[in-house]
Design brief:
297 residues; alpha/beta; Rossmann fold; 2 domains; 6-stranded mixed beta sheet; 6-stranded parallel beta sheet; 10 helices; binds nicotinamide-adenine-dinucleotide
């Protein structure tokens, strides 16, 4: 990277983007910019309203302007790959890109969402390798978590989803996991409570990767009742606002260890930061900084 280091933006400042729409609400630019500042790296992240109408041009602008790269979010994650030169193995398998790195005009796409989730578990001392987990959801976050978990050595994954348009994606994820990893995988209808109870009872960890628990579904969970939980089950949520979802409240009441989605958000950002800068983000500092920021929101 270009390095002319003081805290002001100057002629050497490098730029990474965040391309999505809507995007103004995102915590990512504030987080990345604070991390760049803390590390003394002369780089900034700016958010750009990008969707199907201007994605191709926006990606070309990364090359034209010599940007260091970009984050990508909805609705671009699953379609941006066609405009890039290379995809990492996890981005290829997940079928989604959330981070682009520009190396002298060559653009490579990565998916750090699942990496972030797995790193958040590791950060809490939770080792899921060789274990069985149940993940509810088959959308973007769920797919990233399920595929990354399988790549990272989880033994077995039970996927549950309602019979909506995402169910087919869940079936495809099962196929990919079976073909490309040694992890066992199966998908069930979320309405099948008998299967849900059985799979949770056999699991080391239960994850929510649906939007239930956050607006407009605050105070709601797909878990039928607290009897599905037991104290030695770990329960995680991708939602982090609110910090305690209905599912996590039930987990706390049942005596489970639980984790919300802040860690996933932080560590997916830390992985992108490392891809752009080659440096580790100071995650202990950033945990405190994000905690304080979310408390103010
Ligand atoms: P998505 O739109 O791709 O997927 C939505 C999922 O929710 C699907 O599986 C869908 O079937 C399920 N769903 C929708 N309505 C439901 C209902 N009434 N009952 C049961 N399931 C229902 O969304 P996504 O991008 O995968 O995001 C899912 C959640 O994960 C969101 O809350 C998002 O904020 C969160 N997320 C967190 C992080 C993080 O870093 N912590 C990253 C990505 C996403």
């Amino acid at each position: 990277m270009l390095m002319e280091n003081d805290s002001t933006i100057n002629g050497y400042t490098e730029l990474v983007g965040l391309m999505a729409n809507p995007i103004r609400h995102s915590n990512s630019p504030a987080m990345q910019n604070e991390a760049f500042r803390m590390a003394g790296i002369n780089c900034i992240q700016l958010a750009f309203e990008v969707d199907q109408t201007n994605l191709k041009d926006a990606v070309q602008a990364i090359r034209t302007l010599g940007m260091r790269g970009s984050n990508v979010s909805m609705p671009n994650k699953t379609v941006v790959g066609q405009y890039l030169d290379n995809l990492s193995s996890e981005a290829q398998l997940i079928g989604s890109v959330n981070t682009i790195v520009n190396d002298n005009g060559v653009l490579t796409g990565y998916c750090t969402d699942g990496i972030g989730y797995m790193a958040a578990l590791k950060d809490q001392g939770i080792d899921v390798r060789g274990k069985k987990i149940t993940v509810v959801g088959a959308g973007g976050a769920a797919t990233a978590i399920q595929i990354q978990a399988a790549l990272d050595g989880v033994g077995e994954i039970a996927i549950f989803n309602m019979k909506d348009q995402f169910y087919v994606a869940g079936q495809e994820t099962v196929q990919k996991i079976r073909e490309h990893t040694s992890c066992k995988a199966a998908i069930y209808d979320l309405a099948n409570h008998e299967a849900l109870r059985r799979e949770i009872s056999e699991s080391f960890l239960l994850a929510n990767a649906t939007g239930l628990g956050m607006k407009p579904y605050e105070g709601i969970t797909w878990l039928p009742d607290i009897g599905y939980l037991r104290p030695d089950l770990i329960v995680t949520d991708t939602v982090y606002a609110p910090s305690m979802t209905k599912l996590l409240e039930m987990a706390r009441e049942a005596g489970c260890r639980y984790m919300n989605g802040i860690g996933m958000m932080l560590f997916q950002g830390a992985a992108a930061f490392k891809l752009w800068t080659g440096q580790e983000m100071d995650v202990e500092y950033m945990k405190r900084w994000i905690g304080a920021k979310l408390n103010r929101q």
